[in-house]
Amino acid sequence: MASGTLQVQIVISAATLTSLQEVAKLGMTTPVEIQRQSVIEGPEGDDVSVFTPLATVYGWLSSRTSPVITVVGGVEALVNTYRLYLPVGTDILSGDQAVIEGSTFTVSDTTAESTLQPMLEVSLRRAE
Predict the structure, then answer these.
(1) What gap in Å lies between CA 121 and CA 45, rounded to an integer?
(2) What is the model's pTM?
(3) 17-69 per-position pLDDT tens digit
(4) Residue 120 sits in which domain range?
């Protein structure tokens, strides 16, 4: 250990972690439809990308706006970053879509690989 460096180890029991996850679920009151992308053959033999519903779970959406205007599809837009909190173990992957109160978001990343988490954190994007 380097001089002047303090290491702290926090030990949380499985029961405590389960209790934290149950408390986190209390704030998850918004229905979230998770949609997964698949590619099917289109009417003219071309590949068509479609999103089909996978599951509906309850979550908590938080917004972080970006003050920078960017070009999205040839149109100026604000791209906001959103955080979606879901129960640990929810089947959601990068590239999926989350439909929340009529708005569709694209999943950028999740914390599914993290251990010792009270809730799953999902990064979402939506151009506005």
Answers:
(1) 38
(2) 0.76
(3) 889 889 989 989 999 999 999 888 877 878 888 899 999 999 999 987 767 77
(4) 28-127
Domain assignment of residue 20, yes or no: no
The two three-digit tokens of residue 74, written as one number: 């040839």
Helix or strand (DSSP H, E) at 17? helix 14-25
pLDDT in tens, 64-103: 776 777 777 788 877 677 999 999 999 999 999 999 999 9
Distance in angstroms (rounded) separating the CA atoms of residues 82 and 40: 29
Residue 107: Cβ-neighbour burial (10 angstroms; 0-12, 13-18, 19+): buried
Beta strands in the chain (DSSP E): 30-41, 47-64, 69-72, 75-86, 97-100, 103-110, 120-127
Q: Residue 45 falls within a domain, yes or no? A: yes
- Specify if 59 maps to a domain: yes
We report the CATH number of the domain holding residue 64 as: 2.40.10.370
